[in-house]
Amino acid sequence: MSNVIPKEQQSAYQRWEMESFGEDRRAASESTAAAASKASQLALQKQIDQARAQAHAEGLAAGLKEGRQTGLEEGRLAGFAEGRAAAEAECQQLKQIAEAFGTEVAQANELIAADMLSLSLDIAKAMLKTALPVKPELIVPVVREAIHYLPTLQQPALLHVHPEDAAVLAKHMGDELTAAGWRVVEDMHQDRGGCRVETATNQVDATTSMRWQRIAAALGKELDWLDRA
C-alpha cells in the first residue's frame, strides 16, 4: 500500500496546516524586524539623549564659567568703585579735619596775639606809671609836643598840669613858657605825666589817659588808663 496521498484526496485540514506554518514564519520575521527596528530606535534615542545631555552639561559649564568670570569682573569693578568712593570720602574727611584744624590754629594765633598785645600794653602802662615818679622830667617832652600841635598861639594860653609836674616844668622850661606867654595852672584832677592845653581858639588834650586811649585804639584795643595795670 502506497503512503503517498494523492492531491485530490488531501483534506482541507491538511492544506490549512501548510498555510498556517507559512503565516507563522512571516509573523515571526515581522516581529524580529520590529524588535530590531525598535532596538535601533532606542539606541538612536539613547545617543540623541546622551548628546543632548552632553551639550546641556557643556552649555551649563560654559555658562557657569562665563557667569563666574562676569561675576568676578563685576565684583572687581564694584569693589574698585566702592574702594575708590571710600578713599575719596576719607580724603574729604581728612581735608575737612585739616581745614578745621587750620581754622582753629588761626583763631588760636589771633587769640594769642591779642592776649600778648593786651599783656604788652598792661606792662607798658605799669612801667610808665612807675617811671613817672622815678623820672618826673618825662612831662617836659609831653608839654612841648602838645604846644607844637597848636596852629597858632592866642592869649590866653593856659597849661593845665598836676602840681608836682608844675614844679618840674618850672625847673626845666619855666623861662621858655613865660617868654611864650603861657600860664601854668596846677590841677589836682590831672594825672601825672600829662597836660591839657587851652587857648582862645584851640584845645589839646594831652592827658595821660587820653594819650593812652589813642595808643590802645591804634592797636585795636579799648583800654582805660585808670584800669589796674
UniProtKB/TrEMBL annotation:
Residues 89-215 form the Flagellar assembly protein FliH/Type III secretion system HrpE domain. GO terms for cellular component: bacterial-type flagellum; cytosol. Pfam families: FliH. Keywords: Bacterial flagellum biogenesis, Bacterial flagellum protein export, Cell projection, Cilium, Cytoplasm, Flagellum, Protein transport, Transport. The keyword Nucleus does not apply. One of its GO terms (molecular function) is cytoskeletal motor activity. The keyword Phosphoprotein does not apply. GO terms for biological process: bacterial-type flagellum organization; bacterial-type flagellum-dependent cell motility; protein transport. It is found in: Cytoplasm. Its main location: cytoplasm. InterPro entries: Flag_FliH, Flagellar_FliH/T3SS_HrpE, T3SS_Stator/FliH. Needed for flagellar regrowth and assembly. Belongs to the FliH family. This is Flagellar assembly protein FliH. It comes from Oxalicibacterium faecigallinarum.
